[in-house]
Amino acid sequence: MAFAIIAFLVAFLLIGSGGLLIFYRDRIQERISSALYPRANKKSMSSTIEETRHVIGGVVEQFEKILPRSQAEISAVQQRLVRAGLRSDTAVKSFYGAKVITPVFLMLLSWVTGLIHFGPFFILVLAAGLGFLAPDFWLGRKISNRQKEIRKGLPDVLDLLVICVEAGLSLDQATARTAQELSKSQPALSDELGIVALEQRAGRARSDSWKHLAERTDVDVIRNLVSMLVQAEQFGTSIGKTLRVHSDTLRTKRVQEIEEKAAKLSVKLLFPLVLFIFPSLFVVVLGPAVLVMVDSFKEFFSH
To answer: What is the pTM for the complete model shown?
Structure first.
């Protein structure tokens, strides 16, 4: 077992070193020369970490060419990555590279841990399938968490938008200011509102910018908000009142969802009570009495 682990580590180091030498020879030479001839301005730890991340991401990107894919599939994956907040140019390449590296890693892991001996064909197929689908599961989970974060923080964002609009700012200026002020507390929504503000500064129509926000996030409450803003702009109604009404509606809806979950709690607790808690209580409460009765019957029948 120890020999297998050592062999796996050696093979992994050799493969990683070979990939770095092949794909990043110039960068490695630059770093070696900078180490031999140090300059006055040294790089910070953050820049070093960023370079390391780019190196690892570049190695992963080299494997993305193995998988055949169509332009429609790439567009769908890119849309999912945007909904997850991954908008870099290398996100698609890194995603497809991970779909190749993860199965290989799981197969090597099954070989090192000895699981492959229980059924080589089945274990390898299972590792390859799980490794191929793992990036999709991870991406879906990341999209779901980001959408939950957007739903949770939207009322606070609307309150700040109302304050900015009622203070005399236009909706475009209020959007940019809200994105700036809530960058720490609501990073997902702040990021999306920042994109809306950038699109409006670039000359895109306000309605189109907000519609793109709804398409990027794919959240129902955002779609309702965009519809209300577009209608308010078309009919000339007050933006501040529209945002305030929508914020109150969202809070009321959140309270109703909490009440609905509380009403379902009694039904959900029925099965754990019957299957786990009640048997334990019966054993604790009736156990001593049953033992006393058994001893009494033994003494009675022994006479």
So the answer is: 0.67
165/173 Cα distance (integer angstroms):
9
Domains, the chain, in order of start with CATH, read 148-254 (1.20.81)
Per-residue pLDDT tens digits for 241-284: 888 888 888 888 888 988 998 888 888 888 888 888 888 888 88
Neighbour count for residue 149 (Cβ, 10 Å): 16
How close are the terminal C-alpha atoms of the chain, in Å?
64
Residue owning tokens 């959408």: 147
| Contact residues for 246 (Cβ-Cβ < 8 A; gap 6+) | 158, 224, 225, 228
Is the pLDDT reported for residue 65 higher than 80? no
